[in-house]
Design brief:
The chain is mainly β and 599 residues long. It contains four helices and 31 strands.
C-alpha cells in the first residue's frame, strides 16, 4: 500500500507547485511576535521551540521535540510520531488542542489520532505550548491548553538532505528544498522512516510529504499548505495494555489549509479554509487475518472561517471571528455519523500603558446535538517591578465528546450516545522574572472540571468499560521554568510541573483518570562550540500510584565543514525499563547516527 499511494500523491504535489510557481511576483512577509499574536490575543505564559532548537535538538521525531517542554507525552512507541497522546496540566489525552498556524485539527473520532501530523521538522518555524488556554480563542478541546505549530514561510533558496540509521534496523531519510522566485515562495519536504522495532510487534514504517507555498501581492498574502502522511505499525497492546494482542494499524492523513491575509495599517482580514481527512485501519489480532476485529474508519473535518481585526484608539485591538465547521466519520464500528457547528468569537486587547495589558474574549459554539456553549477568558499582564511581571488569567473551556466516546462498542468497551460536553473553569496566577542572563517563572493554576468524560467500571468484574460523564474533578498545580546562561556557549533550560488531581469517583474505576504526571521534570544542558554542539537532557516523571523513572538523552553533532554535520543521538542512555502507559513497555537504549547536508 505504501508504494502505490505515495508516487501518485508526489506527482500531484509537484504539478501543483509548478502551476503556482509559474504565476509569481515578489514576496516579503515576516511572522509576528509570539506573546501577543496578530491573529488572536493570549497573554498567558507561552513556552516556545524555535526552528533552531527543533533542528538541533535530541529527538528523532517531530512530536518527540515537544518533550523539551512541560508537556506530558504518553507514547506507545519511542518514536513519538507513531502513536502518542498529549496531556497538559493533568488533562486527559482528549483535553489538549492541536493547532497548525492557529487552525484546530483535533480528530473528531478519537484524540489518539491528534499526533498524526502531515509535516516534517523542516517545515516548522516554531512550536508554541500554551498551558491553560481557554476554548474561547480557538474552539473546544483546550481544557489543559494548546499546542500551536507555526509553519515556515518559504523565504529563501535552500536544500537539505538528512540520513540516519540506528538501533533495531532503524533508517530515516529526509529531503527538503525551498525556492524563492519573484513574489512566490515554495517549499517541499519528504521524509520516510522504518524500523524493525525493539520488541515483538513494534515495527513501523512512516512516510510524510508537505508542500508549502506563499504568494505576496500588495495588501494581501496567500498561503497554501498541503500535507500527506502514511504509516503502518505494529501496535502490540497499544489500546489493550497487558492483554497480549499482536495488533496492526494503518494510517493515512490528507491535510489542506488555505489562508489569506488582507491588511492595511489599522484593519486586518483573514479568511481560511481547512480540510483534514484521516483514514485508520486497525486489526486487533493480526494472527487471524479473517478476524472480525478488523475495523476501518474515515473521518473528515471541514472548517471555513473568517477573522476581522481593527486597531482603535479607545478600545485597543478588536477582533471578530466567524466559523462554520462540519465533522463526519464513516466507520465499520461507529457507522456513518456527522455533526456541524457554527461559532462566533469576539476578542479584545487593550494596552493601558507600558506596564499593563488586558485581554478578553467571548465565544459561542452551536454544535448539532448539543446545547449552545458559551466560553470566555480574561487575562491581565502587569509589570509590578522593574524586572518582575505578573499574570492573571480566568477562562471557561469546553470539550465535545468524540464519535468514539459516543458510539463505539466492542467486547471490552462501549460508548454512550447520551454524553454531554465537558466544562471547565480555569484560574491562573503567574510571575516572571528576567534580568541579564537569568529567567525565572512560577505559575499556580486551578481547574474545576464538570461532566468530565472517562471510561469507567463500577466494579473490577464489570466486563466492559463504559463512557460516562463524571460529576466533577479539581486539578491544582504549579509550573516552574528556569533559563540560565552560564557562559557565552553554555546554557541551562529547566521545567518542573506538579499536579494534584481529585476525582469525584463515586466508587468508579477509571481507565484514564489517574494517567497524568504528578511530577514532570525536564532539564537540558546546552553546550555550543565552534565545531559542534552537545545537548544533554535529564527528565523525571512520576504518575500517581506508580514508581517514577529517570531518563538521560544525549544529542551531539560535529560540524565537518560549513553545511555538513555528523550527528549522534542516544535516547534512554541508562537503559531504564519504564512504561509511559501502564502495561506497554517503552524501548531500551536507542542509538541513532546520521549525516546532514544543508546548502
Amino acid at each position: 500500500m505504501l508504494r502505490i499511494s505515495r508516487y501518485g500523491f508526489f506527482i500531484i504535489i509537484i504539478i501543483l507547485g509548478y502551476i503556482e510557481f509559474s504565476f509569481s511576483e515578489e514576496i516579503s512577509f515576516e511572522l509576528d511576535p509570539i506573546v501577543v499574536t496578530k491573529t488572536k490575543p493570549y497573554l498567558l505564559k507561552t513556552y516556545t521551540l524555535d526552528s533552531y532548537q527543533i533542528k538541533d535538538s535530541f529527538y528523532g521525531s517531530l512530536t518527540g521535540g515537544l518533550k523539551n517542554l512541560p508537556l506530558d507525552l504518553q507514547s506507545r512507541n519511542l518514536k513519538a510520531d507513531i502513536q502518542t497522546d498529549f496531556s497538559l496540566r493533568g488533562s486527559s489525552y482528549q483535553g489538549v488542542l492541536i493547532l497548525i498556524d492557529g487552525q484546530r485539527i483535533n480528530d473528531p473520532k478519537s484524540g489518539h489520532y491528534n499526533c498524526d501530523l502531515a509535516i516534517t521538522k523542516e517545515d516548522i518555524e516554531r512550536i508554541e505550548l500554551i498551558p491553560g488556554l481557554g476554548s474561547s480563542l480557538f474552539g473546544p478541546d483546550a481544557l489543559g491548553g494548546a499546542v500551536n505549530i507555526i509553519l515556515k514561510k518559504p523565504k529563501e533558496k535552500s536544500r537539505i538532505i538528512e540520513n540516519s540509521f540506528g538501533s533495531y534496523q532503524t533508517i530515516r531519510n529526509l529531503v527538503s528544498f525551498s525556492e524563492k522566485k519573484d513574489n512566490l515562495g515554495i517549499r517541499f519536504s519528504l521524509e520516510e522512516e522504518e524500523s524493525a522495532g525493539f520488541y515483538f510487534d513494534t515495527d513501523f514504517k512512516r512516510l510524510v510529504a508537505n508542500l508549502k507555498s506563499s504568494l505576496d501581492i500588495p495588501y494581501k498574502v496567500l498561503d497554501l499548505d498541503l500535507g500527506y502522511l502514511e504509516k503502518e505499525f505494529g501496535a502490540y497492546d497499544f489500546y489493550t495494555p497487558a492483554k497480549g494482542y499482536p495488533s496492526k494499524e494503518w494510517i493515512r492523513v490528507y491535510h489542506l489549509n488555505i489562508g489569506s491575509i488582507l491588511e492595511n495599517q489599522t484593519f486586518w482580514i483573514k479568511p481560511n479554509l481547512l480540510w483534514r481527512r484521516h483514514y485508520d485501519k486497525f486489526m486487533l489480532d493480526k494472527t487471524f487475518i479473517k478476524s472480525t476485529t478488523l475495523n476501518h474508519h474515515r473521518s473528515d473535518v471541514y472548517i471555513p472561517s473568517i477573522y476581522f481585526q481593527k486597531e482603535t484608539k479607545g478600545f485597543g485591538r478588536l477582533g471578530l471571528g466567524i466559523e462554520y465547521g462540519f465533522e463526519e466519520v464513516n466507520s465499520t464500528v461507529l457507522g456513518k455519523r456527522s455533526r456541524g457547528h457554527k461559532s462566533i468569537v469576539i476578542d479584545n486587547l487593550k494596552e493601558f500603558n507600558l506596564n499593563s495589558l488586558l485581554g478578553a474574549s467571548l465565544r459561542i459554539d452551536d454544535y448539532e446535538g448539543f446545547a449552545e456553549a458559551y466560553t470566555g477568558s480574561l487575562a491581565l499582564r502587569y509589570k509590578i517591578l522593574e524586572d518582575w511581571l505578573m499574570r492573571i488569567f480566568l477562562s471557561r473551556s469546553i470539550r465535545l465528546p468524540t464519535f468514539h466516546e459516543l458510539y463505539y462498542a466492542d467486547p471490552t468497551t462501549v460508548g454512550n450516545s447520551g454524553l454531554s460536553c465537558e466544562k471547565a473553569l480555569n484560574y491562573e496566577l503567574g510571575f516572571d522574572y528576567e534580568k541579564d542572563k537569568f529567567l525565572f517563572g512560577l505559575t499556580l493554576f486551578l481547574r474545576k472540571e464538570k461532566n468530565l468524560i472517562d471510561w469507567v467500571r463500577l466494579t473490577p468484574h464489570q466486563p466492559r468499560w463504559q463512557a460516562e460523564n463524571i460529576t466533577k474533578a479539581n486539578v491544582f498545580g504549579l509550573e516552574n521554568y528556569l533559563r540560565l546562561k552560564i557562559k557565552q556557549n553554555l546554557s541551562l533550560d529547566s521545567y518542573y510541573t506538579y499536579i494534584d488531581k481529585w476525582l469525584d469517583d463515586a466508587g468508579c474505576i477509571y481507565k484514564y483518570g489517574p494517567n497524568y504526571s504528578r511530577h514532570l521534570f525536564n532539564t537540558y544542558l546546552n553546550l555550543d562550540l565552534s565545531f559542534g554542539a552537545q545537548r544533554i537532557g535529564f527528565s523525571y516523571k512520576k504518575r500517581p500510584q506508580r514508581d517514577g523513572w529517570f531518563l538521560i538523552n544525549l544529542y551531539s553533532y560535529y560540524q565537518i565543514k560549513k553545511g555538513f554535520k555528523l550527528f549522534l543521538e542516544i535516547t534512554n542512555l541508562l537503559n531504564v525499563e519504564y512504561q509511559e502507559i501502564e502495561g506497554i513497555p517503552q524501548p531500551p537504549r536507542w542509538i541513532q547516527l546520521g549525516l546532514r547536508l544543508e546548502w
